[in-house]
Amino acid sequence: MIEIYGSSDDLIEIEGDIREEFNDYGGNGYLYFSDEVVIKYDYDGDWTFSIKSNPKNIKIEIKEVGKIDKEKYNDYSQLVKIEDNVSWVKKTKNFNSDMYSEDVLAFLKRTKEEYIESGEELYGDDLEKLFDDIIHRVEKLKNAK
Predict the structure, then answer these.
(1) What does DSSP say about strands 28-33 and 38-43: parallel, antiparallel, or unpaired?
(2) Chain segment 61-87, per-residue pLDDT in tens
(3) How far, in Å, are 65, 75, 78, 113 from residue 70 at the CA level?
(4) DSSP 3-state assignment of 145?
(5) Do 118 and 127 contact (CB within 8 A), yes or no?
């Protein structure tokens, strides 16, 4: 599970399975997650979040501004909870429905092969499983179009 919230006028915090902090002076963009969820965010004095894509119908809860624990969070941000295991997140300014394109798929396959051939034990079998999972998800999305 992860939680997403704005912590100042230019910071987005992600806590839980992964921990990230993104600066965004423009105040709007998209967060792409490993579980195929895409969250749109905007800042106009308050941080708001909306679901742009959730193809696996993962449970996502968005709590309204001012209705969250003010001791842990601020009172000018919604709080998003994604009830799934998340291994990575990417921030972009534009929504790209072709994020999982042929180029990305080829890059992932090539990177997996390079890691296996290098013999690096950085993550061992877990790294191979991660690449297999990402490649499978990308192929599934590509074939769904």
Answers:
(1) antiparallel
(2) 998 766 666 666 666 788 999 998 888
(3) 10, 6, 11, 47
(4) coil
(5) no
